[in-house]
Amino acid sequence: MPTAARLVAAACFAGLAYLVSGMIVPLLPEGTPVPFLGIINALLGVVCGWRIMGPRAGRGVRGSVGIGITTSVALGLLALFLHSAAKMVKLSLRKYYDNPTEAVVAIFEIGFEYAKLIATTEVIGTALIGGIIAGLVTNAADRRWN
Predict the structure, then answer these.
(1) Residue range of the domain that includes 110
(2) How far apart, in whole angstroms, are the C-alpha atoms of residue 57 and residue 14?
(3) How does pLDDT run across 118-140, given as a tens digit for each residue?
(4) Contact indicator for 9, 138 with CB cutoff of 8 Å
(5) Any transmembrane segments, and where (predicted)?
(6) Angstrom distances, CA of residue 101 to CA of 89, 90, 111
(7) What is the pLDDT of residue 114?
(8) For the chain, how many structural domains are there in total?
(9) Is the pLDDT of residue 31 over 90?
(10) How many CB atoms lie within 10 A of CB 138?
């Protein structure tokens, strides 16, 4: 059921995902194509905000901070997995892997390499603080329009 808290959470986490995506682009290797990185991550932010943060709104300040951080971490892991899987599919279409098991294992290897590239204080701090703020805003929206 659509609620104001779900809508606010979806908007907040979409904005947060787009902001963090902009911070990640300069950290990637030179020549890495990223035409839709921000848009894809913003759509993932909408899904995570709607499905994770939105239904759990209204649990007070401490609860909203915790759920906001949880949603940020879930969003980051989901985005990391999705982009790693996309790169694996791209490589598998070029016949890079010998068997399907090797391709599935490569998703996690690629994800680990991406995680090492983007694990900076600025990116992680922005994601966590943004998750806290989004959680508090969602809680306020739930209290205001519930």
Answers:
(1) 4-145
(2) 17
(3) 999 999 999 999 999 999 999 99
(4) yes
(5) 32-53, 65-86, 123-141
(6) 13, 16, 16
(7) 95
(8) 1
(9) no
(10) 30
